Amino acid sequence: MSQTITIDPVTRLEGHGKVTIYLNDQGEVENANFHVTQVRGFEKFSEGRPFYEMPSLMARICGICPVSHLIASAKACEAIMSVRIPHTAAQLRRMLNLAQMVQSHALSFFYLSSPDLLLGLDSDPANRHIFGVAAAKPELGRAGVGLRRFGQHIIELLGNKRIHPGWVVPGGVTEPLAAAKRDEILGMIPEAYANIKLALGWYKQIADTFEPEIEVFANFASNYLGLINEDESVEFTDGALRLIDAKGEIVADGITANQFTELIGEAVESYSYTKFAYYKPLGYPAGSYRVGPLARLNIAKSMGTPLADEELGLFKQLANGPVQSSFYYHYARLIDILYGIEKIERILTDPLILDKHVRATAGVNRLEGAGQAEAPRGTLHHHYKVDENGLMTWANLVIATGQNNKAMNEGVLQASKHYIHDGKFSEGILNRVEAVVRTFDPCLSCSTHAFGQMPLELKLISAEGSVVDRVVRS
Amino acid sequence: MPQARCLILACGNSLREDDGVGPWLAAWAEDRFAAEPRARVIARQQWTPELAQDVAEADAVLFIDCSVDAKPGEIRVAPVGPNGSDASGVGTHHLGAAELLALSKELYGAMPSNSLLMTIGAGSLELREGFSEAVQSALPEACTRLETIVLGVLASPDRPIPH
What we know:
The structure holds 2 protein chains of 2 kinds.
Chain A: E1 3-7, E2 17-23, E3 29-36, H1 42-45, H2 54-59, H3 66-81, H4 87-119, H5 130-136, H6 138-159, E4 168-169, E5 172-173, H7 179-206, H8 211-216, E6 223-228, E7 240-244, E8 250-255, H9 257-263, E9 264-267, E10 276-279, E11 289-290, H10 293-299, H11 306-316, H12 329-348, E12 368-375, E13 378-386, E14 392-398, H13 400-403, H14 405-419, H15 427-440, H16 444-447, E15 456-461, E16 467-473
Chain B: E1 6-11, H1 21-32, E2 39-44, H2 51-57, E3 60-67, E4 75-79, H3 97-108, E5 114-121, H4 133-155
Parallel strand pairs in B: 1-2, 1-3, 3-5
Antiparallel strand pairs in B: 4-5
């Protein structure tokens, strides 16, 4: 008789998800799905609101990466206003986005994944958490806490709030950087370097011991999408998108926020509230791609900062072409952090960083606008339409987790097929399936933003594993 | 950040009615001890692992939270010690006072010599600002007890806190 294995909830993620693994009569894996089971309604309830409220409204989607939503949203608003923001405002936003990336990556690596990496995927789940890390290797725990505090404190200094700062607005930021705050951030930089160097050194010591997992953790050919500068260095806040294929060849380049919708579609599957983004010219699912740290490093020719460039060189040596295994999201995340610290230090030495002119103003000059930025977990796109009074008539958000959705599902299937045979599995095996999802660091609350548009299939499964009822809402 | 002799660490969401009593008391303490550099106030919607460093650096900590186990408006103050032994269910976005103390001990090898947990029984946790009548009525006494505790710590940080 066929069986279904359900992992619900998948633990140590941002939000609530579920994995279902379907076994055939021989106990072999036939299929597996990663479900995002929560639903939200941000696109719908923004309708009718003044467009200039959108950044602060949209930031409420997420408590982990609100800054990326603030920035993508503000950029969409600026497209509606037809304004170019002052240089200093752009630099300050860039720093804010990098600070968020550092704290979010620190949470993902140290709090969510390091218990597996340090204690082992088969270790006692009762100890597989930050307390277990603190007991076994306190210096690693302190490094994680330190990097979280570093990013959070910069956000608090710039935006006056650690979460959901209202400082980023359409046209720039609400107030310039004070010299005292600049100096305080600069004073935190040495400790941040020490923490990330400790983490990178430790990761390199243990990475080889995970060779079996590297082989089957979403290790397959795919496309990659991410922001990049004109000099082909990595970019988080401006630049344009590049899509490369599994061999590293450029599929599309210079994709602006305005072109995004023309080129990127969103498919719907019955088992998840999160859509599945794909590159339209290749169709779905062939046009599916990955975003986030792994994609950014596969796409970029350089980081643009010396220490991160050294690490990028080592990263590129992992494969002849794009690095395919999602296990390496962990390494890429640490390189992102190193880059973020270097870049923040560099931004703070910009001679114009204390300039008082940090905001451009304008009304509605276009009825449609789009903005994009790199969130910690990948590319984020906001697209708005307004009426002549500037009231929102339509919004669409394409979130990193949706863009990684197909790869996460294929990764869960790959790992399940590798580990589960004859219907037998252990807690450690199920943890490996969860750990595949964790490598992507999905943010599920971000990813389910539309309401009333996507079908949902509900299955009622008996204790014996047979489906006894099925409800489809479309 | 200078080392705080007394850290007041509050938790709660001011948009969930009585859950906001912790941040309210934190704001009161911020005003009351504005001229006292040895008192430090932190209010968060949730206590997270990063706060372990602040806890480790303090001589004494007064945790403040609302409680669903106490009668509405009932104020309880009790010593709290480290306990990270049942951490399998803890999230990365929220920890309890005992877990924070355990984490500060594990990570930094340091803990406050005095730690108290003050809870105020919640009457309602609806999605709105303000407090239920019971919690509103309890605020003056909560402020008095908070003040007494902090002044006691500042006078003699190594002795048990009067509560």
